[in-house]
Amino acid sequence: MDIVAYALGYQEIWTSRLVKDALAKSFEVYRDSVGRIGPRGNKAFWAEYSLELDDIKTQEEIDENTRSRKRGRRTGLEIQRADMILLGWKDENGVHQPAWLIHPDLVAYDWARKCLVAWVMCKHHGVTEKALCERNRWPLSSFKRHRDFAAGRIAHRLNLMGIEVW
C-alpha cells in the first residue's frame, strides 16, 4: 500500500464494513450461481408434488418476498471475487493465499472468527443478529465487537498485501 497516496486521499483502503459487505456478497454470488444439489427430479413420471385448489389459492396469497427466489445472472468478475474470498487465490509471486475466513491470522482469534462466520451465515439466511444472539445466549454487544474485530483483521491483511478495494 502506498502510504503517500492514502494520506492524500487518492487510494481507498479496506475497512471492516467493506470486508463484511464483500463476504456477504460472495455468499450471494455462490447461492445464485451454483446448481441443484442432489439427484435430478423425475421428469416423465408422476409429478413430484401435487397442488390442490386450496393450495393454489393460499400460494397466491403469500407475499412476494416469501416465494421461492429467482436466480440472478452473475458476471465473471463477481464469481472471480467470490472465489478469491471463499476459496483463496495466488498472488503475483505465485504463492497461494488462503481464503479470508481460514487465514492463520484470523484462526488465531477463534471466538472472533466464529462471530464473523455466524454473522455471514445469518445474513445469508435472513436471520437477524439479535435472533442469533438470543438463540445462542451471546451478548449482542460482544458479538458485534468480535465480529468487527475479525473483519478488521482481514481488512488489515488485505491493505498490507496491497489488494485494491472493489
Structure description:
The chain is mainly alpha-helical and 166 residues long. It has a domain of 116 residues. 57% of the residues lie in helices and 2% in strands. It has eight helices and two strands. Strands 1-2 form a two-stranded antiparallel ribbon. Strand 1 and strand 2 form a beta hairpin. Helix 2 packs across helix 6 and helix 2 packs across helix 8. The chain is globular and about 65 Å long. The two termini are 15 Å apart. The model has no long low-confidence stretch (mean pLDDT 83).
Q: Report the order of strands and helices.
A: HHHHEEHHHH
Helix content: 55-70%
- List unreliable stretches of 5+ residues: none
Report strand order across the widest sheet.
1-2
Number of helices: 8
Radius of gyration: 21 Å
Q: What is the average of the pLDDT values?
A: 83
What structural class do you assign from the helix and strand content? mainly alpha
Distance between the termini: 15 Å
Broad shape? globular
What's the main sheet like?
A: 2 strands, antiparallel
Q: Proportion of β residues?
A: under 5%
Number of strands: 2
Q: How would you name the oligomeric state of the polypeptide chains in this document?
A: single chain
